[in-house]
Design goal:
Elements (H helix, E strand, L loop, with lengths): L16 H24 L6 H12 L4 H9 L3 H8 L1 H24 L7 H21 L7 H12 L3 H19 L2 H21 L8
Helix pairs in contact: 1-5, 1-6, 2-3, 2-8, 3-5, 4-5, 4-7, 6-9, 7-8
Length: 207
């Protein structure tokens, strides 16, 4: 005797506009705070944020404006891959992150910040920020969209493209930063990626 078919799970409901706004606000603000932790300790991370931090640490330019300029060429890839709604939400999240990153130094300061603590805390904070943005169909733009486009066009896996970018970024960091700061930065990037890998499941929460 065959067993009865498993019941069909109810379709997840979509987030409301207010829920999307709260998620994007949380993600943008927490991403800025994570970048501040890293920048205050002289650290970087992977992807486009890491490049912006590397440039910011080596110059007098703030992280926010540098990230905004670097992100501009990537919006076309995001639009082509995920559409206008995703692009608009991403631009809003990036602008919020940039504005917050410019305001935070006037509101918060660190008398003592160990680079190891900054790396781990930034990994947790930035990971939670990205999870919130992903859950609300948003991102902070950057290399991911390009990696997906390269995968579609040339058959090179997106993960390999991102890993290649990060490898080049950290190689440049070894030439510009003390080696121990680069290693602490790698720890922070590993924590961030672990948070995303463990907690990001598109089939386990509402969209």
């Amino acid at each position: 005797m065959s067993s009865p078919p498993a019941p069909t799970p109810p379709a997840p409901h979509r987030h409301s506009v207010l829920e999307d706004a709260q998620g994007i606000a949380f993600g943008g603000v927490m991403a800025a705070f994570g970048a501040m932790l890293l920048g205050s300790a002289g650290l970087i991370t992977g992807q486009l944020a890491g490049l912006a931090l590397l440039i910011s640490n080596a110059t007098d330019y703030g992280f926010g404006p540098v990230y905004l300029v670097l992100s501009l060429p990537f919006y076309g890839f995001g639009y082509r891959r995920l559409g206008a709604g995703f692009l608009i939400r991403t631009i809003v999240a990036v602008l919020l992150m940039v504005a917050t990153s410019m305001a935070l130094p006037r509101l918060i300061g660190f008398q003592h910040l160990h680079p190891g603590a900054a790396a781990v805390l930034a990994g947790f904070v930035s990971g939670s920020a990205l999870l919130a943005l992903f859950r609300h169909r948003t991102s902070l733009g950057g290399i991911g969209a390009v990696a997906l486009d390269v995968q579609d066009r040339f058959g090179i896996r997106a993960g390999w493209v991102q890993m290649g970018f990060d490898a080049a970024l950290f190689a440049a960091a070894f030439a510009l930063m003390p080696w121990e700061r680069v290693l602490w930065s790698a720890l922070g990037a590993a924590v961030l990626n672990l948070v995303i890998a463990i907690n990001h499941r598109r089939d386990r929460y509402i969209v």
